[in-house]
């Protein structure tokens, strides 16, 4: 039996790390009550709320938080025709928040994620751990059996090449979840009562060349390093698929990070995932993805980006061409998705013009 | 998997004895070694007689036994930490669990002694998943599963070739690192087993390891000796080289290598600073090995383990031989090892 942490009485850190360099992006369609318990850890930071669904609904943001909020009308207004690339009625809309942010780092969290407890019963400051992960190098070129070598009390093991001990820049920090695990619908249907109670006290770099299922519930990244590749795809209303937004982004960012020599970490921090979504609803959303991913995975495993693709945008555009070429035959959806990937980059570049010298 | 579920007849526990007095070692492991067959191989260079407590089902091999089986000329292959490979050679079992003689059972965070043997066998009996990373680590363990987004066609996994365990207290750090951080001890118990992904290289430690002998036995090669190799782990690289070969061959043949649990408690022995005084060859050799293994492609025609080892040895000789005589010797040793393996194991 896993419980969330009780954060009452925990003081807000007077000197929070990267306070002015990090935005917290939260997609919501319900409410933001969960932010009450996150106060000690998140209140100092600026929030970007992306309100999905009915734009006339008023979303109440708990007192004391500094935020900007965008509903669908705002998305349409800001992006014009390019708004077509932003999903509606799906948490994939969160990537709009990445695009409008002006900060170097993003932390994104779902509105049903509470503060977790570590095995000692202490409340986990997930954002602090994500920041540590991002500020510290990754080691994708050689696996360290003691996991994160830069952590207090750890190091590189015997045999680890010295030339690789400096590591590379970390682009993404992928956190995990206690309580309700992030299972697909079939697994949820078979194991409705399974809860993740295992606190694995490690951060590790996912090796170069290895793909993984990236969950958007508890995720942080360096926007400067990988932002444009964090497009969460076309999901939800009017789309044949859902619950593959973060997966899609995860496969894209991983091949691009591998190509550009950036690192992706997974492991700590944990959050407490409180709400189990309806597995029957999930199955309807996912089922095409379950079949499609059998072709999508080999596609990503075999992607080779050109030497000339040296920026994230260039990599992403190249990737979109390959998606159109290789996956359109799977379903016309991928043709649309490839176009949306291009639209996304155009919108990103418009909203984030390069700083003039 | 509890010890009652393991078929003990399928397991040999192989111990390389670099210390003569194994009383404390074996007594501390007694709860977990009981019922298993043990193979203890005495380092041929160890002069004293072994002291082994009563109550174990054990076969002991020392220098004369080694020479009888492999010939006096080849006995040097099994000196020092490499003596354990002789045990791998003569074993007739499916699984081998091998632990250094300076390690005792560790305690988990609940204070319960860890049955490293059971955990290793469980790791070996369950599939590995090298083709896609599962963010909840071992999907086959109690309370876990494959996460959303994990392709269904990859969920049956592949056979597990090796289980690499870890160490509390004295971790397997190299001499420069330990010398710099003399007080550092590993107190972090990471409760996970995971598969090391396809093509990812890692330093496999021989301190606490298990493998499927039937599947990959010949791939555990006692080959690389650094100049002035000593009787403490800080002065060896034989297991790291063996591990690079094993991983590459496993990747080629479609097997998996796991890392993580079980932990053992590793005791103090030796002096890192003292080991540093010897010119530390290992660093140089590793730097050369990494690009070699990264670029290496075994031919499609190498479809069994022995062929893989022979092809790998050929590549080592061709591409690394001129860099350092240690590589040429390693290549020769690898070829010799396969010959020995075939001759010992065909005579039944």
Automatic annotation (TrEMBL), chain A:
Annotated EC: 5.4.99.30
Signal sequence interval, chain numbering: none
InterPro entries registered for this protein in UniProt: Nucleotide-diphossugar_trans, RGP, RGP_fam
Glycosylation sites: 158
One of the GO biological process terms: UDP-L-arabinose metabolic process
GO cellular component, one term: Golgi apparatus
Site entry: Required for activity: 158, 165
SUPFAM superfamilies, alphabetized: Nucleotide-diphospho-sugar transferases
Keywords of this entry: Cell wall biogenesis/degradation, Glycoprotein, Golgi apparatus, Isomerase
Localization per record: Cytoplasm, Cytosol; Golgi apparatus
Enzyme class of the recorded protein, top EC level: isomerase
Record family assignment: Belongs to the RGP family.
Job description of the protein: Probable UDP-L-arabinose mutase involved in the biosynthesis of cell wall non-cellulosic polysaccharides.
Protein name: UDP-arabinopyranose mutase
UniProtKB/TrEMBL annotation, chain B:
Pfam families assigned: RGP
Enzyme class, broadest EC rank: isomerase
Annotated glycan sites: 148
Location of this chain's protein in the cell: Cytoplasm, Cytosol; Golgi apparatus
GO cellular component, one term: cytosol
Primary localization class, coarse: cytoplasm
Domain of life (superkingdom): Eukaryota
GO MF annotations, alphabetized: UDP-arabinopyranose mutase activity
Entry keyword Ribonucleoprotein: no
Entry EC no(s): 5.4.99.30
Annotated positions for site Required for activity: 148, 155
Catalyzed reaction equations: UDP-beta-L-arabinofuranose = UDP-beta-L-arabinopyranose
Gene Ontology BP, a term: plant-type cell wall organization or biogenesis
Keyword terms: Cell wall biogenesis/degradation, Glycoprotein, Golgi apparatus
Function: Probable UDP-L-arabinose mutase involved in the biosynthesis of cell wall non-cellulosic polysaccharides.
Family: Belongs to the RGP family.
Name of the featured protein: UDP-arabinopyranose mutase
Organism annotation: Brassica campestris (Field mustard)
